[in-house]
Amino acid sequence: MKLLIEIERDRENDIMPATDGSSESGQEAVDAVVDSLDMLGNSTHAQSVDLLFLKEVMKSRLMKNLIKAHDTLEDTELKPHRMDSLGLAADIMAELTQIIGCDNGAAELAGILQDLNFISLLRTHDDIASGNLDSSSEFDDHTQDFYTPDFNATGDAIRMVGIRKSKDEPLGVTFKVEDGEIVVARIIHGSIIDKQGLLHVGDVIQEVNDHDVSNDPDALRKHIKKAEGRVTLKIRPSYQDCIMLPPIYVRAFFDYDPSNDTLVPCQEVGLPFRRGDILCVVERDDMEWWQAYVVGDEGQSGLIPSQDLEERRRAFVPHENIYTSELVACGLVKSKKKKREKYETRKNHQFDRSDIVIYEEVQEMPPFQRKTIVLLGAQGVGRRTLKNRLIEHDPSRFGVPIAHTTRLPRQGEKNGVDYHFVLRSEMENDILNHRFLEYGDFANNLYGTTFDSIREVNQKGQMCVLDVNPQTLKLLRNSEFLPFVVFVASPDLETLRILHEAAASSEKHVMDADLQKTVEESARIQRLYSHLFDFTIVNSNLNESCQQLCEALSALAHQRQWVPIDWVYDAP
Q1: Residues 6 or more apart from 447 whose CB is under 8 A from it?
Q2: Which residues contact residue 121 at a Cβ distance below 8 angstroms, ignoring those fewer than 6 apart?
Q3: Under a CB-based contact definition with an 8 Å cutoff, are residues 147 and 157 in contact?
Q4: Overall fold of domain 248-363
Q5: What CA–CA distance (Å, rounded) separates 78 from 72?
Q6: Which residues make beta-bridge pairs with 536?
């Protein structure tokens, strides 16, 4: 809000009103706002992420289309072609009633004209066209003359739906048996059915190509599978109002293969994905199965486990408390009553400690530089050496926070340069008040890194390089510190031994048992935290590792990035 107020203030100061009577177009107004955003680049009131996000919105294709539509509507006077669309619909129905019984297309058109929502649309059009904006919301009597017993808006109307398909081509629809009837359970986004828009969730299937399948799921599956060319369905519309939630983007934190999942409603429409993939979730009304596609592979969507379902599955909730539907056949599910008892993660400390991660909602952002570099890795893998080499490479770009300690200064050490030397009582008080990112006790002295020391590095315009424990990511991975997380992986045991022999002094020798612990600890960290890594380096050569890291950091300046959604919308 402060950012927008500042933009408007700048516009008032910099943009003079037109004196020739002409008005500013929508695109000109947006261009002026973008120019103001560029001038605000160094403002202390505007966060860099805020500016990036707002400029991205203002320059997006959607905004340009909205502006174009706005300017077109402003310049064009719209006039209706006729004011009696309801009467026209009634005349068409009178003609259709003579051929409904022998023409599927006529029956389908009649069903559309009889749809209550469509009639409401026509009546609204007539009211707006005639300027009658204060009329009653009830239908006029003349709309009743084309409601026949076979086509009514009470939910008993019968419609014929024609669909074209190739042999063995999936329709992209799943069904369930409900009260002895076969009902459309879901329609897969991007499928044949979805593109044609003739079938809807809740519709009751009665016939397929003149074959009665009203209470026979096996017959429905057989006739749809072997059908080729045109498939004609006789349905009873549901007339359900479905409110579609907007799509969201998530990063997957696990691998999924529907062919190995016996609980997916239909394995043929399941969507396989890998850990780290960005998924666009286009439909999430179902509590157990979402519809999504992998970004970069915008084909037909598929089913993926919902956040709630996968959490309960991994939390070892008993089978009967998780799944509330029984598989009848591929695409056919026998409904049971939904169980409302949900697994409450916050009420189970064991679940919290297990740190179950399923999906993370993300947002695509334009190129920007991170504020901190977090180096993770096992002890002895070379994190600290890599950190020092990075700072030596470009000390004006990279910096490290000055640590706090309770020990006494040694000869030549300066307070605020080598360490912040503080009293133990003072440091313990700061620890209790959560001012430390991490801390520890060594030789009966406390050492630690405060959040303020990280902020001081950022305020100098430097990226703060941190060599910390993986658990600290929970405190760092937010919109304030914007970390770039780098995992320094251990090479194999033999390579690690050679590296240590080359770097070790004559009086220091690392045992093979210690090196083996380093390799095992590296594998453990990768197994537990790989979903949080932005970049991984196998540190088999220090010079090459440093070069790879510098190249990855430089790439951030021109690559679009997927970041957690709270980095964008919950900026401090």
Answers
A1: 403, 404, 405, 439, 440, 441
A2: none
A3: no
A4: SH3 type barrels. (2.30.30)
A5: 10
A6: 487
What would the DSSP string read from start to end of 73-125? HHH-----S-S-HHHHHHHHHHHHTTTTTT-HHHHHHHHHHH-HHHHHHHHHH
| Amino acid symbol at 469 | N
List the chain domain ranges.
2-75, 248-363, 366-397+462-572, 401-461
Task: Give per-residue pLDDT as tens, 66-84.
Answer: 888 887 777 666 677 888 8
User: What is this structure's pTM?
Assistant: 0.66
Say if residues 362 and 250 touch (Cβ distance below 8 Å): yes
Rounded distance between C-alpha atoms, residue 235 and residue 149, angstroms: 16
- For 317-402, strand residue ranges (E) read 325-329, 332-335, 359-365, 372-376, 398-399
* DSSP structure string for 233-255: EEEE-------PPPPEEEEE-S-
Torsional sign, CA 4, 10, 13, 15: negative
Closest CA to 467 of 443, 440, 446: 440
Whether domain 401-461 has CATH 3.30.63.10: yes
**The two structure tokens encoding residue 539:** 């540190």
What CATH fold (topology level) applies to the domain 366-397+462-572? Rossmann fold (3.40.50)
Task: Give the tens place of pLDDT for each residue, 536-551.
Answer: 999 888 889 999 999 9
Q: Convert the pLDDT of each residue in 181-231 to its tens digit.
A: 888 888 888 777 777 777 888 888 888 888 888 777 778 877 777 777 677
Angle at 408 between CA 402 and CA 410, to 5 degrees: 80
> Do 366-397+462-572 and 401-461 have matching folds?
no
Q: Which of 229, 227, 188, 180 is nearest to 208 (CA)?
A: 227
Report H helices in 411-541: 424-432, 451-459, 473-476, 493-503, 512-529
- 102, HSE (Cβ side, Cα atoms, 13 Å): 2
Residue type present at position 109 = L
Q: Which DSSP symbol is given to 191?
A: S
- How far does Cα 89 stand from its chain's mean position? 43
End-to-end CA distance of the chain, in Å? 12
Instruction: For Cα atoms 239, 243, 246, give the angle at the middle one, nearest 5 degrees.
Output: 150
Q: How far apart are CA 244 and CA 284, in angstroms?
A: 9
What is d(CA 6, CA 14) in angstroms, rounded to the nearest whole number?
12
**Which residue, 252, 262, 451, 238, is CA-closest to 362?**
252
- Smallest CA-to-CA distance from 563 within 41, 49, 1 is with 49
